[in-house]
Amino acid sequence: MTANIRFAIAATVLIAAALLLHARSSDETLPPHLALEKFPSHLKEWEGTDLNIPQDALDVLGPGQFLLRDYQNESSAIPDVNLFVAFFPSQQAGDTIHSPKNCLPGSGWYPLESSRMTISLPGHEPFPVNRYVIAKGTDRQLVLYWYWAHGRGVASEYWAKFYLIGDSIRMRRSDGSLVRVTTAILPDETQEHAQVRLLSFAENIGPLLDQYIPR
Questions:
Q1: How many domains does the chain have?
Q2: Contact, 166 vs 137, CB < 8 A?
């Protein structure tokens, strides 16, 4: 598939989503759920510290609920894991989820590697996620992120929008979220070792997602 065809498909999806969401924005429904600010700060051996999100970043994100927190492993001297969750109760025209990869250069981080992998979280079917190795100077970090809505995880922002259209028709809902976990890669550490740390941490949040991001 050529780049022009991919662009045309993506543009068609975005336009269709915008028109449909605008038409249905007045009769959306949203099941009860807990606020992200109540997400547990203690997850087994991990203890979390909330971080402030700059106002300019909040302006870009738009209306929603956001969690940015560093989790430190109390039983081991390993790098922290940073958790970012953005939940949008309604994705009307112009308020759809922004891809993290578009924000990396602006914050000084550049992608060295990008790929996709499949992960399994307790209580959910396996699903694909984005995997990035990013760098700023000599520092490196490993990033996993995915789009999450109604108990379903996808890596592609375009597939997320395809599902958004279907869910808006079938469920009269346009809520959705983005989940991202990040950890530093130590100078003497392999990417695989850092990945094990992220996946181990992610297993703690899997069973909790449905309470804060309703199915």
A1: 1
A2: no
